[in-house]
Amino acid sequence: MQHPTILMQGITKIFATDEMETHALRGIDLQISSGDFVSICGPSGCGKSTLLSLLGLLDMPSGGSYQIEGKEVSGLSLSEAAFIRNEKIGFIFQSFNLIDELTVFDNIALPLRYRRQSVAKSEIEDRVMACLKTVDMTHRAGHRPNQLSGGQQQRIAIARALVGSPALLLVDEPTGNLDSRNGDAVMDMLCELNNNGTTLCMVTHDPRYADMASRKLHLLDGRILDSDGTPMQQHTTALRQVAAQ
Known about the structure:
By secondary structure, the chain is of the alpha/beta class. It has a single domain, classed as Rossmann fold. It is built from eight helices and ten strands. About 40% of the residues are buried. The protein has helices spanning about 50-55, 80-90, 105-115, 120-135, 150-160, 180-195, 205-210, 235-245, and strands at about 5-15, 20-30, 35-40, 65-70, 70, 90, 170, 200-205, 215-220, 225. It is globular and about 50 Å long. The longest helix has 16 residues, at about 180-195. Strands 6-7-8-3-9-10 form a six-stranded mixed sheet, with helices on both faces. A four-stranded antiparallel sheet has the order 2-1-4-5. GO terms for molecular function: ATP binding.
């Protein structure tokens, strides 16, 4: 049986200090299959950013199981997590996170140059130009990010996220720094990518954009809520049965 792209079971995250413990996530069960478009919304402090960090292997859970394409990743070392993250996950950030000292081409190529197995120069060029074509920005390959508009920079960020052919694209408030016209254009592009098979998980505060996803999850107090506002604990058994097959 084919494994889901993402399978989380009973994921918890606790931030502890000498004075107190903060339970940021409380038993998250989440399955994302290839080709899904999932949006995660909820009020500030509900755990969205923490969940996104765990999905992207930027942090590790305090408890529970996390599998990417059937591989358990919840207990990886920092170096191993970095390799898996580079190979399996693409990121699109609200603040673009492009490097102004590098050209557009080199910004997009960067993930390939950090691969565990080296990628040939010709392949890097082919993949970068293909991604630039996808976002309609081939004419900007030699420019630097600070020569581009905000909407253009976000297109470059999308191309960079796609260049490694990730299993999952994590999208963090992609329209937060854009006006409504550019925000709508970026969301249309994300929807088109999903229609062509890209698997997306997006955090957003904007209900209009959340509704564009094929699945909408609501987070509150570290728990995923069902449509009636109750925690989705009833799905735990079904998810475990999937994992055991």
